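Sample 3 of the quickstart, ligand gamma-amino-butanoic acid:
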Amino acid sequence: MPHNTPDTIIGRQENDPASHDNSPIRVNAHNEWDPLEEVVVGIIDNARFPRKDHVLRTDIALETGQPIHGDIEMPDIPEFVIEETKEDLNIFAGEMEKMGITVHRPDAMDTQRKVASPYWETEQFYNYCPRDVLMTVGDRIIESANIFPSRHFEAYSYRDLLLRCLEGGSRWIAAPKPRLRAVDCNTDSQVKTILNTVDPAFDAANVIKAGKDLFYLISSSGNEAGLKWLRSILRDEYRVHACPGLYTGMHIDTTITLLRPGLVLVNPERVNEDNLPEPLKKWDVIYAPEMEEYAYSNLPPLCSAWLGLNLFMINPGLAVVDAHQKALIKLLEKHKIDVLPLRLRHGSPLGGGFHCVTLDIRRKGGKEDYFK
Ligand code: ABU
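Result:
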């Protein structure tokens, strides 16, 4: 297939009749736990580690202690990792469909196709984590100001879905893309954040929502300017709480997991009674047990060891949890949350668990104040 025709940039997934459906989709997602009706699950087709992405290279250098401007090892993703991940994602999607939940998948990208801006050129990455590039807040669907050049155009693989959401009455908003110049990258290995930019920059997975209150992690993947931009969009309809000093890595969803009104699971290495975001001090807090470690390949991790917290609530009484995390499952069951144990065998090297690989499009229920 030629690589320079427009159709090969973003291709619809073949044999997927759903991708030819233009019917309107209603967006309604106010929190992390209300009964799920419609969801996006990521795909792993064509995934690759983009060697030319200078922000990702900085991230890997900082994580692994390699020189920031040296050659960074980025392995190929072995075919068996792709195949097993396809299987795991399809099982996850199939389980939700069995529950009557509508599941959408992104269009596959031609990741070998180079993308460029005035400031960089790179290959693309993947569509594994819709959670990073899109965020739903009530009836809004927001494209994030993602920090990796290789993910700059990833939202195109959701374009048909976004058009359907617009048709369904959603407010579709795209954050301004950060420039991500070389000068915007940190060069000091003592400073544990990747970016040093005045542009708003945030992954959607830096944010979790609880009705009128959102929690925004200040980290390598979400800066103060990104918080300011989000507040400017949501204005006085929402309280967007800054969460600084908890975790300099990436996303909030291995640090704080909202389970149901009044119950939050936190990472004991990062969160304590003092630094817990103020509103959550009114809730019952449970501390995650140590995570079971496992590896199905030699690929290095692309996220922290706490991926078990990256669970996905189907409703306030049912969570999809990594089947390896037996102690966590026991803890949730003790708090009257049933667990559907599933696997994402390569979640760690691919950088995402069940929360990351989803985007809740519609849940039952409306916007509530859970912290009155
Ligand atoms: N969103 C999953 C990665 C979270 C983290 O370990 O930074």
